[in-house]
C-alpha cells in the first residue's frame, strides 16, 4: 500500500539491525511511500551483514556511523547530503543499548562507567546527532526528527533498569532541542513511545516474553507491532503533522491510559 506520503522527501534511518528491528520496517515503509533514504548503523552492526540486504531492497547504501562519535556523525551527514544533492527532510533515531542490562547487573548494583556508556549510546547520541545536523543546517524547513522511546521513562518497570533514565533523557532532549529548531527553521522533533516489540534490543530485557504478554493483555488494542509503528512514523515524517513538535507520542494500543484490565486479572 502506498499513498505517496513521502514523495520527494529524503532522510536518514538509524538502527536497522535485522528484519525484526523497528527501523527496518520504517525504512521499508518510507521507501514505499516515495522517500529516498540513507541507512546507517554502528560499524560492528554492519559486520553482521543483514542491513546490506535492506539497502539492496531500498535501492540505497549504508554509511556506517557510531552514533556516539561526532566525527562519524559529521561524516555521515556530509555523505548523505552529497547523495541527496542537498538537505534532508527526516531523520530516525532508533538506537538503544544498556551495558548493565546486557551484563545482568541489578539496578541496585549499577556500574557507573557502564551507565555513562548506556546514556551516551541511547540518549546523548540523539543530542549529538541533532547538534551536528543543526550546525550544518542539514534539515529542510518543516523537516521531522523522531526517536524511539518507551513508557518506562514515566512509570517504573523494574527490569528496564537504567534504560528508564536513558529514555527520560532522550525525551527531554526532544523537547529542548525541539524549541530551538522550531525557532530556527520550523524543524519538528518528537519521540514515539512504542509497545514492547520482539527485537534484539527488546528481548534483551529480563522476562521479556512475560512482559510482552502482560502488556498485550493490558492494552485494549493489543501491543502495536513494528509494522504499525512504521505506519505511524511515516505520518510523522509527512506534511500531515506539521504542527506536532516537542511531544512524546504513545503508539501502544492504549496501554499508557489503562489502570487495570480484566484480561490481565485472568492471565
Ligand atoms: N523492542 C521494544 O520492545 C522497544 C519498545 C519501545 C522502544 N524501543 C526502542 O526502539 C529503538 C530500536 O530498538 P529495536 O527494538 O528495533 O531493537 P534493535 O536491536 O533492532 O535496534 C537497536 C539498534 O541500535 C543500534 N546501535 C547500538 N549501538 C549503536 C551505536 N553506538 N551507534 C549506532 N547504532 C547503535 C544497533 O545496532 C541496533 O540496530 C530503541 O531506541 C529501543 O529502545 C524498543
Explained architecture:
The protein is α/β, with parallel strands linked by helices and about 270 residues long. It has a single domain (about 10-265), classed as Rossmann fold (3-Layer(aba) Sandwich). Helices cover about 45% and strands about 15% of the residues. It has a six-stranded parallel sheet with strand order 2-1-3-4-5-6, sandwiched between helices. Nicotinamide-adenine-dinucleotide binds near residues 21, 95, 121 and 150.
Estimate nothing, just give the exact number of structural domains: 1
Per CATH, the superfamily is NAD(P)-binding Rossmann-like Domain
Total helix count?
A: 10
The CATH first-level class comes to Alpha Beta
Average per-residue pLDDT, rounded, comes to 96
Gross morphology: globular
Biggest β-sheet: strands ordered side by side in the sheet: 2-1-3-4-5-6
From the structure above, extract its key features.
single chain; 267 residues; alpha/beta; 10 helices; binds nicotinamide-adenine-dinucleotide
Describe, in short, the structure shown.
This protein has 267 residues and is an alpha/beta fold.
Q: How is the secondary structure organized here?
A:
Blueprint lengths: L9 E5 L7 H11 L3 E5 L2 H4 L3 H8 L12 H15 L3 E6 L5 H4 L9 H24 L3 E11 L13 H23 L2 E7 L13 H11 L7 H12 L10 E4 L10 H4 L2
Helix pairs in contact: 1-9, 4-6, 6-7
Amino acid at each position: 500500500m502506498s499513498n505517496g506520503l513521502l514523495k520527494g522527501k529524503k532522510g536518514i534511518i538509524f538502527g536497522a539491525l535485522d528484519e525484526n528491528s523497528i527501523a527496518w520496517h520504517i525504512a521499508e515503509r518510507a521507501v514505499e511511500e516515495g522517500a529516498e533514504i540513507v541507512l546507517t548503523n554502528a560499524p560492528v552492526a554492519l559486520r553482521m551483514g543483514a542491513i546490506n540486504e535492506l539497502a539492496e531492497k531500498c535501492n540505497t547504501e549504508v554509511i556506517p556511523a557510531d552514533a556516539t562519535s561526532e566525527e562519524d556523525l559529521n561524516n555521515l551527514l556530509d555523505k548523505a547530503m552529497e547523495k541527496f544533492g542537498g538537505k534532508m527532510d527526516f531523520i530516525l533515531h532508533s538506537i538503544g543499548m544498556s551495558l548493565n542490562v546486557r551484563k545482568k547487573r541489578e539496578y541496585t548494583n549499577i556500574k557507573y562507567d557502564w551507565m555513562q556508556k548506556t546514556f551516551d549510546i541511547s540518549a546523548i547520541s540523539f543530542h549529538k546527532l541533532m547538534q551536528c545536523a543543526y550546525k550544518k543546517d542539514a534539515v529542510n524547513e518543516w523537516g521531522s526528527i523522531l526517536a524511539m522511546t518507551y513508557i518506562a521513562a514515566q512509570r517504573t518497570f523494574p527490569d528496564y533498569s537504567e534504560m528508564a533514565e536513558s529514555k527520560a533523557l532522550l525525551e527531554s532532549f526532544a523537547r529542548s532541542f525541539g524549541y530551538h529548531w522550531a525557532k530556527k527553521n520550523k524543524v519538528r522533533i518528537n519521540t514515539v513511545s512504542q509497545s514492547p516489540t520482539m527485537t534484539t534490543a527488546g528481548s534483551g530485557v529480563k522476562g521479556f516474553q512475560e512482559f510482552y504478554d502482560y502488556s498485550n493483555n493490558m492494552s485494549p488494542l493489543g501491543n502495536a507491532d513494528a509494522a504499525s509503528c512504521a505506519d505511524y512514523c511515516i505520518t510523522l515524517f509527512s506534511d500531515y503533522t506539521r504542527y506536532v513538535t516537542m511531544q512524546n507520542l504513545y503508539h501502544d494500543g492504549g496501554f499508557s491510559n489503562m489502570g487495570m484490565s480484566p484480561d490481565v486479572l485472568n492471565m
